[in-house]
């Protein structure tokens, strides 16, 4: 392998040739550069000559120059750029607003169709309809039998005695179980809402954040269940033995003992 001889020198451009080379390079790359980057990329033009050429090209208004701090950035002039009138800008803004409204309407329609599709997919298929129909008919027969027994119980004292009402203790136990289930439902509802808020609070897109729950098929409680939750919260605040009041009345000393 023949090594590079020391007397081989790289031809260095200067003057008008260097200016034309820099102008051609800036137009070809179509991006901003500083003098250091241009000298490193071109190699055939030394940095002092690059600086001089850039200054000359800028003074002759062949290239643009912007100051960023103490650094000068150069780029080629953008040809064919025309100014936009106020009427055109206003029309663009109007078109943009109309496009946003149309996009929102389409997104709402898409969300509704996705929910409808989810419901259809969750339902029985055509092949499953006969078995589902049979099960519903059996259930309907059972309900009809219960209705017949209740009607006969109202007309027959003997059947009334067989269908005795529940005792007071059983009713109280059922009421206690119902209140326990309500409290459990309210707790889990709060946890679910906290999870949803945590997941959506960092979503930057407002439309995606608003459609988050509907896209997942999450349905919120109706007015009746919501009112039950409000009633339970109000009732728990008015209880004389409220646990939160008992906890707030406790005081801890510096040693950690509870008074």
UniProtKB/TrEMBL annotation:
Keyword Transferase tagged:
no
InterPro entries on file = Hop2_WH_dom, WH-like_DNA-bd_sf, WH_DNA-bd_sf
Query: Which Pfam families does this UniProt record tie to the protein?
Result: WHD_TBPIP
Q: Name one GO molecular function term.
A: double-stranded DNA binding
**Where are the coiled-coil regions?**
89-160
- Main localization of the protein? nucleus
The protein's name in its UniProt record: Homologous-pairing protein 2 winged helix domain-containing protein
Organism listed in the record: Cronartium quercuum f. sp. fusiforme G11
Q: What is the lineage of its organism?
A: Eukaryota, Fungi, Dikarya, Basidiomycota, Pucciniomycotina
């Amino acid at each position: 392998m023949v090594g590079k001889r020391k007397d081989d020198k790289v031809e260095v451009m200067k003057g008008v040739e260097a200016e034309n080379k820099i102008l051609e390079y800036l137009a070809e790359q179509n991006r901003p550069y500083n003098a250091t980057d241009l000298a490193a990329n071109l190699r055939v033009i030394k940095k002092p000559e690059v600086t001089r050429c850039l200054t000359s090209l800028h003074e002759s208004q062949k290239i643009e120059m912007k100051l960023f701090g103490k650094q000068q950035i150069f780029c080629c002039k953008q040809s064919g750029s025309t100014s936009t009138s106020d009427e055109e800008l206003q029309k663009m803004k109007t078109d943009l607003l109309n496009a946003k409204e149309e996009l929102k309407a389409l997104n709402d329609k898409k969300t509704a169709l996705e929910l409808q599709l989810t419901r259809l997919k969750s339902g029985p298929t055509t092949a499953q309809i006969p078995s589902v129909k049979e099960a519903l008919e059996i259930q309907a027969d059972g309900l009809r039998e219960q209705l017949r027994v209740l009607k006969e119980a109202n007309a027959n004292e003997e059947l009334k005695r067989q269908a005795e009402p529940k005792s007071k203790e059983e009713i109280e136990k059922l009421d206690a179980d119902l209140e326990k289930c309500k409290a459990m439902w309210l707790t889990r509802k709060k946890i679910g809402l906290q999870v949803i808020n945590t997941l959506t609070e960092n979503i930057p897109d407002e439309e995606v954040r608003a459609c988050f729950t509907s896209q997942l098929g999450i349905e919120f409680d109706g007015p009746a269940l919501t009112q039950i939750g409000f009633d339970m919260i109000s009732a728990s605040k008015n209880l004389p033995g409220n646990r939160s009041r008992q906890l707030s009345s406790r005081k801890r000393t510096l040693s950690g003992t509870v008074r």
